[in-house]
Amino acid sequence: MTQIHISIRKPKTGGLDPVTGTLRFRPVRRHFDAEGNLVIAASFDADLSESGELTVDLLPTTSAFVWQVIELADTPQAYTRYVEVPDSTHVVAYADLVEVDAGTFVPKDMAGSQLLKVRHASTQSEAETLSARYPDELVFFDETATTAKAAAALSTLESITAEAQTNAMLAKSAMLSARSSADSATATQSDLSSLASNASMAAASVANDSQTVADTASMVAAKGEAAIAAIDSTVRAVKDKAESASAELPSAGTPEGTTEGTGKDSAGETPAGTVSEEPAAKATVKGA
What we know:
Among the domains are: 2-109, Immunoglobulin-like, CATH 2.60.40; 116-186. It has helices at residues 124-133, 143-248; strands spanning 2-7, 9-12, 15-18, 22-28, 31-32, 38-39, 44-47, 53-58, 66-71, 79-84, 92-93, 98-99, 117-121, 137-141, 258-259, 264-265. The strands form 6 sheets. It has a 5-stranded antiparallel β-sheet with strand order 7-4-9-10-12, with no helix packed on it.
């Protein structure tokens, strides 16, 4: 039930006076209430107080019925209204009730306007289809199923987000690992460059030492050749002198006790002061 507060006044000199009288309430059309009771279109009366006020409990209206209110019933000032009563836990002022047409239940403020047509759908997808088919009609659907689908979609999105975050962490770890590997490679390259530089220096040193050895060997060979040439020259000079001395010796007879043609005595030795006719052996120097 909804409480409706009614206050009626009449004009007077200098202000308003309260009005007393009866208000008659009747549901338009028979209908069934929420408990399944059949409510017939019977009326009841309620009287205004001496202050011209009245609070009455009325059933909230539905699409099946509205309330007929006859103000100051059975008097010359009687006036009939057809109103909607909202389902409210608070007291509603009679002046705030929406007045409707008695035949169509359409609010009088909407008189002459297009009636709103309503359709019902079980899912949002069906509602979208009906809305596309009937653009001038309002389509309602059960949002519970849609909410469940939205929750499932949200859960899927959260799962995708979590997976994306995990992949991002793995990518970051891989990037850090790659950076560490790059640093290690740079350090290794630096070490290799240092080793290559040392190897180049060692090779240059070896080449220099080899050149020094070669130069020394060439010098020794040159000195050896010079020594051999000097020895050959000396030997040749000695030979020439020996041959010259041999040519100057007398050719007739030989001293006693000597061996002919040899210049040696019977013991095979050359006496002092004589020159052997044997040719001098040529000195030979072997190269190292």
